Amino acid sequence: xxxxxxxxxxxxxxxxxxxVFIVLAAMCVGQVLTxxxxxxxxxxxxxxxxxxxxxxxxxxxxxxxxLAQAPLRKHAAAAR
Length: 80
Description:
It is elongated and about 60 Å long. With 80 residues, it is an all-alpha fold.
């Protein structure tokens, strides 16, 4: 939790770092919860699903930030 205490909510890079840290911490907690499953194939299925959901959450945040910073609107306004 120490990296979250250092991260500033006003800096975009720190905000992204905090988001990735929270998602990875949640994935670790979810990983521990999957260890209760006695069937190995079902355990690995849950772990794979957890990994995919975590990576999608991280990539969605980064894609949203990239789209917000893209100069798409500036070119359309300059063309008019």
